[in-house]
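Task: sequence in, structure out. Protein: Large ribosomal subunit protein bL32.
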Amino acid sequence: MSVPTKRRTGSQKRRRRSHFALKKQSLAVCSQCGKAILQHTACSYCGYYKGRLVLKVKSQKSLKSKKEKKH
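Result:
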């Protein structure tokens, strides 16, 4: 197995790692319910995407009642 002839300096290493930082997610506002959602995805709260219903979402009342029954 060969050994690198020159060691990578600390500044080179840090420069290479400068792109590893986490990027801030860009959020959009749902046109139907006003919740913050990721862009180009359907709203998990109301099920709408670009003004059309694309997901059938259970009502929030039924979800709350299930949580109360568990506890």
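Helices lie at 10-17, 60-70.
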